[in-house]
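Subject: Sanity check before I submit

Could someone independently write out the structure tokens for this chain? I want to compare against mine line by line before I put it in a report. The sequence has 241 residues.
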Amino acid sequence: MKLKICYLKNFLVASVIISSSVVSYAQNADLKEKKVLINDGARLIYHVKENNIKEGSYYIKNAKSDQFLVRGAYTNNKRSGNWYFYNEAGKPESIYSYQQNRLAFIDSTLLEKITINIPGQDKTVIENTQIPVMLSPINLFLAEMSNNIIIPEEHFKPNEELLIKIKSVIGVTGEPKYFLIYTHNGKEIEEQIKLKRSTFTIDWIPAMYEKNPIKSEFIVNTAISGNTNSSDGHRRFRWNE
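---
Independent answer below. Compare away.
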């Protein structure tokens, strides 16, 4: 059963607007640039004015390749304009317009990696619901999840990947709850993922039906491999590329 994918059809993906906006903000002497290492693979760069209020360009880059992962801007501590989220190849994976409050673009290959559920609703509602929007590239999202997951060593078979699901339950306010799902000895295990405080917040736009937000589930299927350099009796994981 398919859900609606609503975005601005006339949006130009190859827009150069962001380049000019980033330069103009960077040249503003009243703004202070800040740099933060989010994780081993991502670096955040943004600007603030007095009282640490975010203003101007905000972007996340791959710490090794210097390739953009996220690119956008703030106006008086609120996201503004078009925000671009890039895949591992450096191409736009999704674009969200804060001016229009709508998804401007989404790569069709991203949709192949996810499953969307609308629990407790009938067929008519499901087929006419606009999908929830994750304001993050999928790889950055998975990296954030991986930093907060520990699976008991006995649940992982040597030299084998563990197939898992990351389920994001998105409430009507856009507030997410995250769950890890996998199978061990024929039994499905589902545990809530409690995120540590992070510099980069993954924001969500809730699913919408007739202009009203409704609860939804955003599920990513993936696999992880183990890292035995753990001292707490558990095996910590990283995501496969």
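---
OP: Matches mine. For the report I'm noting this point. The two ends are 29 Å apart (CA to CA).
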